[in-house]
Specification:
The complex is a heterotrimer of chains A (340), B (147) and C (123). With 340 residues, chain A is α/β, with parallel strands linked by helices. Chain A has two domains: 164 residues, Peroxisomal Thiolase, Chain A, domain 1 (3-Layer(aba) Sandwich); 152 residues, Peroxisomal Thiolase, Chain A, domain 1. Chain A has nine helices and 15 strands. The chains are: A alpha/beta (340), B mainly alpha (147), C mainly alpha (123). Chain B: Pfam families: SpoVAC_SpoVAEB.
Chain lengths: 340, 147, 123
Amino acid sequence: MASKRLGKQTVMLQNPPRITSTASIVGPKEGKGPLRLFFDNIIEDEMWGEKSWEKAESKLIRETFSKVLQKGNKTSQEIDYVISGDLLNQCIAANFGLRESDVPFFGVYGACSTIAESMSIGAMLVDGGFADNVVCITSSHFCSAEKQFRFPLELGTQRPPSAQWTVTGSGGVLISNDGSGPYITHITTGKIVDMGIKDANNMGAAMAPAAVDTIVTHFKDTGFTPESYDLILTGDLGAIGREICVELTREQGFNIENIYNDCGLMIYDREKQDTHAGGSGCGCAATVFAGFVYKKLMDGTLKNVLFVATGALLSPVSTQQGESIPSIAHAISITTSPER
Amino acid sequence: MQKTMTNKEYQAYVEKKTPNSKTGRNVLRAFLIGGLICTIGQFITNVLKMMGYGQEQVSSIVSLIMIFIGALLTGLDIYDDIGRYAGAGSIVPITGFANSIVSPAIEFKSEGYVMGVGARMFVVAGPVLVYGISTSIVAGIIYFLLK
Amino acid sequence: MDNTIMTYISAFIVGGVICAVGQILIDKTKLTSARILVLFVSAGAVLTALGVYQKLVDIGGAGATIPLTGFGYNLVTGTFKEVDKLGILGAFTGGVRAAAAGIAAAIFFGYLMSVAFTPKAKR
């Protein structure tokens, strides 16, 4: 067995890399939400001076990438890899957003789990001695996502209570083998899980089994328990998925209720902002982690975090063909004291 | 995954967990707004009849006006707010048909006027025309054969 | 005067009920707005062919013609008229002829509005 593997799906990093810098830029709706003080920048409107939603999303990634470098005191010449993706067809927000970055580029698609997927790969590259500095970054945009996956913005439709609101925002992190910041010690990579949910308006329920599978596997592979963490954070299970996640993990012997939260529930005020089941999109987990969670890790409020971003691996075509929604969840174990 | 439940069991479990829309409230709102839009149409009809137009002309002119209103309210970013409140009350009237044409047309402007606006206009309206006209043709043929 | 007020009340009630039926479909089934529109226009066409929808139009006026079921009604009554005049050819020409104003308006105003306006984000 490969020397750093633990159990079925986990790797333990021998030289835990550090998250030395993060940045997040969000849209106006997110800028009115409960976490508004934790983001680096709030844009005034969703077009941001561009000619299309897609171009605006590229600008989000481009500007967030610059900010990550600026806050981490690095130039793009010092970055060995940038790993990125987004929700748009062929990931054009990332491709065009990073077109001028001048950094070796890996494009990934994990739907809303993209930030955790890219951080998993980035951390392994640094721990493995393949890189000194890696930027992991992703974005989503409400308007471009609705245009691609659902309905035109001006169409007079009603969203059911289980529907989620795609976050407009980009979040990025810098992972390095030196500097200061919390450590990434373990990575549990998810398997694709599909329990037959077909309703694209109920993504939380579709993704919850994947989150449960990854969290439970993480505990079994590492020997950690819920007591090892002060926060287990999923990406965007929303109100319904959250309940399912807590119940199903409890059934498998792990009670995470007291330390569990979900980025989709944190980023909006559900009542005032009419976001039904909560936020979603690659930008949801990315901005909440890069903005809020990172600050709490840096100031010591949080010491051990299991960050589990979840993604729904569907497309408009698969839905039209009557397919269900396969999902995935990637877990990253982050700590301020690696000797634990 | 160590499955503690089958797919079918999970789907039933999700059904229980997923909250339902407030149907009563939604139906009332749909009734009120839908009724209101139809009443506006009736008003226009009455006015045109008073002005002396014949039945067929009236029906054509009313369609024209209602479609114009639906299209304009969509362009002004108002119709989606009506839709959020009224649901079927805004989808079912012919103003909703206009909304379903204008909204994708505006959305895909960035892809150009031919393949963007021109093609996407019919993303929702197309099926309506296909099935509406086809049904009427079939009805016409059957009617002819029965005569 | 009385008569006019009656037309408004009937239009309101009949139109409201048809929309309410649509709302029940939205809430109780997973039908999206496109499928509902197709369902209603086809239902209107079929009910007109069976002679049922005319009664609704007689009672509700615009309450029956404004909803998309009324578009189906328009198509089929136009078709039957043309079949009476032209025979089988009328089955093809009648519907589109009757709906000509609506279809042309939808296309033209649709295009006009998309030129004049840009999409705005939802709040």
